[in-house]
Design brief:
The structure holds 2 protein chains of 2 kinds. By secondary structure, chain A is an alpha+beta fold. In chain A, about 40% of the residues lie in helices and about 25% in strands. Chain A folds into 8 domains: about 130 residues, Beta-Lactamase; about 110 residues, 2-Layer Sandwich (Beta-Lactamase), CATH 3.30.450.20; about 120 residues, Beta-Lactamase (2-Layer Sandwich); about 100 residues, Beta-Lactamase (2-Layer Sandwich), CATH 3.30.450; about 100 residues, Beta-Lactamase, CATH 3.30.450; about 80 residues, Orthogonal Bundle (Helix Hairpins); about 150 residues, Histidine kinase-like ATPase, C-terminal domain (Heat Shock Protein 90); about 120 residues, Response regulator (Rossmann fold), CATH 3.40.50. In chain B, strands 2-1-3-4-5 form a 5-stranded parallel beta sheet, with helices on both faces. The chains are: A alpha+beta, B alpha/beta.
Chain lengths: ~1000, ~130
């Protein structure tokens, strides 16, 4: 007999094997309620190690809950406790929650098995894992509940159809959709559907059904029309699917719902129609760009206006691009930064455009669009969100209006305004805006300055107050015409009063500004101060008037002629009256027609002079009167250009009839006087000569001495009268010279012989040693007169016993130089300036017997120059004088044009002279004299066109050279080139003064050029 | 050639006439008929039968040229040398006097001591041609 333990052990093993044999998880009690046995599967589910030993319940880390409630069950309610307690556990579903494992759905059953050995029973609890089944089931339950709720919410009708038997069931709602009750439709068959369905829709619905039954669609869905009980059609959406198939896989059961979609359908129809209309509207709008996007920014609508604005076609954009494609990136970034700062989070990209729209704001902003061509357009863009019925955003809508043109116009207007304002304030002329009443509305600085007011002072006055009363009416008349639109603007000259009372002459321009309706608003005035011009013009007018007066009243005939045509342009009365013609007749005649033919050579000469030097020197001619008689005139003229550039000749024609008559009277008077003087003089001196000569017998010695004085004085008186008459004739051009080729020596001898007695009387020795025969061109008689004069002077100014020398030499340039040299006191400085003047006398205190007429040297100079010669002198006070004459040996014509000008440089600094010479020798013939003596000789022997003179020379001052040259050859220009300051007396009487230290060679050259050019003219 | 001996001097100025008379008679040893006017000359010249007539140009009443003209009308002067005396020196005038029959001109003021010699020279020229 086995002991109890042995038996227990055996039972224990059998139980364990038995438990393991059960394919489900098993838990068993064996007489002890606090411990139970589990098989391996159960141990696994309970999260413990498999064991054959009893498990203490308290050691289980396990909670149990119901399927519907996750909270742990009380220990008494667990399936195994309920089974122990003797309750039958059948199909109890619980959830095992073990540690981290997924909750396990478990279906529990219990069995009480009697223990044959012990009088106790074994309680077995089997657990089946239904987690998977449970999930499906739960889903089904949930689906069913959901379906039910959906069906209820949707007000759906339901249907079930057995495809094999054709048995069909529907619910109440199904019938209601058609306006029936369920009873009214009974019995329900599969044809019930087809009976109520619109014939047009049956075919389509059957097709959709067969597609589903063939397994090609997951479910059947069809919209069709059902006839309502009252006759109208109801749109129904029917959805369903096969949910059970037979053993052969053929569809068995199908179920579904029917929904009345008439309202939806109508709403859809409405929406479709509205959308169509909208689309048409959107498409048709070419002025407004309409762009819609989906929620992500992809463009869905791009209308014609957008195409036009952006240059892209719809096809290029829609579904492909986002609006960022045609925005200026920089603007988007900048706006993004603005928004980011305001919102405190980053907003970029498409969000920048729609940020406001998202928040139920319709935003209007200006943006720059970049066209496909790259061109920028300024747009005003309105962005709003598109929302569905539930206020969910489904997209965005943008509408853009091109404002570029408007913006440009605005900018232009602004610019114009700014420009006007700028021009207004900175204008150099006065400018003002003037109200219709004449008040200054705005004035610029120039006007304030012009009128002497400050701006504020000016703005409280009006133009009427400031206008000179005499000018006001005219101004107001014009202003009124402007207001009446008769003129668009006006200009006038008027006078304004300045603040200080002064009058200014101004030029005023006025225009009117009108609004778009043509109503005048104000005037714009521009005021220019022309006082100076006005005064200048007045002065000019008055000077013109004066000149015109001179022209009209001049006793000298004045005419203006066209140089080219010789036609008279103007002639004054003094010119016209003596001719006997009327003014009109005179103007029709040319100067040539008025002039006798024999004057043609003189006229031609005058024209040639006009052409070459721009003027003609006075010459006498005659005019022929209307009656054929003639009268003499002195004509002279100058050529000018009138403002049009025409060459005109102003000529003066002095009627010299009267002068001629006076000349005649004078000549007769002179002849008479000379006759009347000479006759008594002749008899006085003749009578005395006869007595003194002893022809009439011996005279008492004392008486004779007195008579001799009388004879001498009468001789002087005769000489004076003769000289006077000579001078008169010379100056009047009446002395006729017979210039011919003559032998010089006989003339000189005759002069010496003639003076011999006089020389003897003065105790002077006349020396003329040379005997070189020379021929010269001269008037012999007049040359003797000159030499006699010079010799006589020399004798008079010599000491007794002194020599007076007469030399002659052949000079260069085919000339002869004749010198008269004395060794007297020389010419006093004070006298030199007047030496060749008429009635010049060296010294009033001189003894009376040396006195001459004071005309001698003046006559000499005049005669020598008329004979084509030059007279000059050198004199050193206390050392005598040297007078010289240079005469041509033959009649030579100097052809100046082909020759370089000849310049004598009087300069002791040879290096400096060379420097100057080098610079100008290509166009000037330079001659150098390094001391006064050489200079004097050279001047005596040669003709120079110009003298460059240094004043400080080794043998004296250049001033003496200037003095003699200035007096004897005034037409030879002298330039003083000195190292020191030049006395004013000299400076005023030379062509130029240059100080060596302050000048340059270039300056010397330009001075020379200037002088020669002047000379040529 | 006969010698110059008889000269008629026609001169309105008394003092000139007197000086000339001394100069010509005493210095030149000529036989002189002095007339105070052209009229007097017309009256006495033919009877005097001069070799030369010295005529002042400017005289009141009959002037020199007119006197000459009337003398020529009154007598044959082909053998008589005619000399004018004048203060005017223009050569044109000298030519003029020659054209009306003068052989030369004496310019005033004349030198009393050389006047006779000058007339002698003119006489030689007159006869030489």
């Amino acid at each position: 007999m086995p002991d109890n333990d042995e038996i227990d052990q055996k039972e224990h093993s059998q139980r364990a094997a038995l438990l393991e044999l059960i394919p489900n998880a098993v838990l068993a009690y064996d007489g002890n309620r606090d411990a139970f046995y589990v098989n391996t599967l159960a141990a696994q589910w309970f999260g413990i190690e498999p064991t054959t030993d009893p498990i203490q319940r308290s050691t289980l880390a396990l909670t149990v809950s119901t399927v519907t409630d996750p909270s742990p069950l009380e220990a008494e309610d667990t399936p195994w406790q309920r089974a122990w307690n003797g309750h039958e556990v059948q199909g109890l579903e619980v959830v095992l929650n073990v540690g981290e494992q997924d909750p396990r759905f478990v279906l529990c059953h219990s069995n009480n098995i009697a223990n044959t050995y012990k009088s106790t029973s074994i309680v077995l609890i089997t657990m089946i894992d239904i987690s998977t089944i449970n999930a499906d089931y739960q889903a089904l339950l949930s689906d069913r509940a959901q379906m039910r709720s959906i069906i209820e919410v949707m007000h759906a009708g339901t249907w079930q159809w057995n495809l094999q038997t054709g048995a069909t069931s529907i619910n109440e709602r199904w019938a209601q959709i058609g306006g029936y009750s369920l009873e009214e439709l009974s019995p329900i068959t599969v044809d019930t559907w087809s009976r109520f369905t619109h014939p047009d829709d049956v075919k389509e619905s059957r097709h959709l059904l067969s597609e589903h039954l063939a397994g090609r669609t997951s479910h059947y869905s069809s919209v069709f029309r059902m006839r309502h009980k009252d006759g109208h059609w109801v749109w129904v959406q029917s959805r369903g699917r096969v949910y059970q198939w037979d053993a052969q896989g053929k569809p068995l059961w199908m179920a579904g719902t029917n929904i009345d979609v008439s309202n939806v359908r109508a709403a859809e129809e409405d929406a479709r129609a509205t959308q169509a209309n909208m689309q048409a509207l959107i498409d048709a709008s070419s002025d407004v760009a309409i762009i819609a996007t989906d929620i992500d920014g992809l463009i869905t609508v791009f209308n014609t206006g957008a195409e036009k604005l952006l240059g892209y076609s719809k096809e290029e954009i829609v579904g492909k691009l986002s609006p960022a494609a045609f925005h200026l990136e920089a603007e988007v970034i900048a706006r993004g930064q603005e928004l980011s700062e305001a919102e405190g989070r980053e907003i970029t990209g498409f969000d920048v455009f729609i940020h406001a729209a998202r928040h139920h704001e319709t935003e209007t902003r200006q943006w720059t669009y970049v066209r496909k061509s790259g061109e920028h357009r300024l747009v005003s863009l309105v962005v709003s969100a598109i929302r569905d019925g539930n206020e969910n955003i489904t997209g965005f809508l943008g509408m853009a209006v091109d404002e570029t043109a408007q913006h440009e116009a605005e900018e232009q207007a602004l610019l114009a305004a700014q420009r006007f304002a700028g021009a207004f304030s900175s204008a150099a002329v006065g400018m003002a805006l003037v109200s219709l009443e004449g008040r200054w509305m705005e004035v610029n600085d120039a006007l304030c300055e012009m009128l002497g007011y400050t701006r504020d002072e000016l703005l409280v006055t009006d133009f009427q107050t400031l206008t000179h009363p005499e000018d006001l009416q005219n101004d107001l008349d014009l202003l009124n015409r402007l207001l009446r639109d008769e003129i668009s603007n006006y200009a006038m000259e008027k006078r304004y009063y300045k603040k200080n009372g002064e009058l200014i002459q101004a030029k005023l321009w006025v225009a009117i500004v009108r609004n778009r309706h043509g109503t005048p608003i104000h005037f714009v005035s521009q005021i220019q101060n022309i006082t100076e011009e006005y005064l200048a013009k007045k002065a000019l007018e008055s000077s013109e008037a004066r000149l015109r007066g001179l022209f009209d009243l001049s006793p000298v005939g004045i005419s203006l002629m066209d140089y080219k045509t010789g036609k008279q342009i103007e002639a004054n009365d003094a010119l016209v009256a003596p001719t006997g013609y009327t003014h009109e007749e005179f103007m029709a005649l040319s100067d040539r027609e008025l002039t006798p033919r024999e004057y043609a050579p003189l006229m031609n000469n005058a024209i040639e002079q006009l052409r070459t030097i721009g003027r003609f020197t006075p010459f006498e001619k005659e005019y022929i009167r209307k009656d054929g008689t003639r009268y003499p005139i002195l004509a002279q003229g100058i050529m000018m250009r009138d403002p049009s550039g025409r060459e005109v000749v102003w000529s003066l024609a002095e009627n010299i009839s009267e002068r001629r008559r006076l000349d005649q009277i004078k000549n007769e008077f002179v002849s008479t006087v000379s006759h009347e003087l000479r006759t008594p003089l002749t008899s006085i001196s003749g009578a005395l000569s006869l007595i003194v000569s002893g022809v009439l017998g011996e005279v008492n010695e004392e008486v004779c001495a007195m008579l001799k004085i009388a004879a001498k004085s009468s001789a002087r008186l005769s000489a004076l009268v003769n000289d006077l008459l000579d001078m008169d004739k010379l100056l009047a051009g009446k002395m006729e010279l017979k210039i011919e080729k003559v032998e010089l020596l006989p003339l000189l001898e005759e002069a010496v012989n003639g003076m011999a007695a006089f020389a003897h009387t003065n105790g002077v020795e006349l020396v003329h040693s040379e005997d070189t025969p020379l021929q010269i061109q001269t008037d012999g008689t007049r040359l003797i007169q000159v030499l006699t004069n010079l010799l006589s002077n020399a004798c008079k100014h010599s000491q007794r016993g002194a020599k007076v020398e007469l030399h002659h030499v052949a000079g260069p340039d085919d000339s002869v130089i004749i010198s008269v040299i004395d060794h007297g006191q020389g010419i006093p400085k004070a006298f030199r300036a007047r030496i060749f003047q008429k009635f010049a006398q060296a010294d009033g205190s001189d003894s009376s017997d040396k006195k001459g007429t004071g005309l001698g040297l003046a006559i000499c100079k005049e005669l020598i120059e008329r004979m084509g010669g030059v007279i000059g002198y050198e004199s050193h006070e206390g050392q005598g004088s040297h007078f010289w004459i240079r005469l041509p040996r033959a009649r030579t014509q100097r052809s100046k044009e082909n020759e370089k000008p000849v310049v004598l440089h009087v300069e002791d600094d040879v290096d400096f002279a060379k420097l100057v010479s080098l610079q100008i020798s290509n166009w000037v013939s330079m001659d150098l004299a390094t001391d006064l003596a050489t200079a004097n000789r050279k001047i005596r022997e040669n003709h120079y066109d110009l003298i460059l003179l240094d004043l400080f020379l080794p043998d004296g001052s250049g001033e003496t050279l200037w003095e003699s040259l200035h007096l004897a050859q005034a037409d030879v220009p002298i330039i003083i080139l000195s190292g020191h300051e030049v006395p004013r007396r000299l400076a005023n009487n030379v062509a130029a003064v240059l100080i060596k230290d302050e000048t340059t060679i270039q300056r010397i050259i330009s001075t020379l050029q200037h002088i020669f050019e002047m000379g040529d003219k | 050639m006969r010698r110059l001996q008889r000269i008629v001097h026609v001169e309105d100025d008394d003092s000139i006439r007197a000086v000339a008379k001394v100069a010509l008679e005493r210095v030149g040893n000529f036989t002189l008929l002095s007339c105070a006017s052209g009229a007097e000359a017309l009256e006495k010249t033919e009877q005097f039968a001069p070799d030369m007539i010295l005529l002042d140009v400017m005289m009141p009443g009959l002037d020199g040229p007119t006197t000459l003209k009337k003398l020529k009308e009154a007598m044959d002067l082909t053998e008589v040398a005619i000399v004018f005396m004048t203060a005017k020196v223009q050569s044109t005038e000298i030519e003029y006097y020659k054209s009306i029959g003068a052989c030369n001109v004496v310019l005033k003021p004349f030198d009393v001591m050389t006047l006779s010699e000058q007339l002698g020279q003119y006489w030689t020229e007159f006869n030489g041609e």
